[in-house]
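Give me the fold.
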Amino acid sequence: MVIEVAPFWETKTLEEMTTDEWESLCDGCARCCQIKLEDDEDGEIYYTQLVCHLLNLDNCQCTKYQTRSELVPTCVSMKAQDVRNIKWMPDTCAYRLLEEGKSLPEWHPLITKDKYSVIDADISVRGKVIPEYKVAEDEWEYYVTDKHQ
């Protein structure tokens, strides 16, 4: 007799997860690495086609993950309590989905057991963005897009 155990993301709250469980929720889409601009007047957030200079554009992984917040002070080190307050997270983000009581999408690496399934599903930024350093900061507004890449 085989007893099926529900996966951790279906039985634990975000706050209850171990560090490894928490980290495994990230699907590797790198949408959170997109450069966002905020309108000074109304606070509206605009996404650009630009991404952090630390992002590896081929595998959508941070090249300096452990020290990213030191190297890029605006980089958010997501914590469970932050998920409710960060409104710019992509609607496909596992942290956001679980916080909203939704399931992980079928292409999520925890479901597929393939860390590149997010790329295969065309959810990641791969092939859709350029590194921020290739564009002068005063020109970033020309790269605003209407959606996450």
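The chain is about 20% helix and 15% strand.
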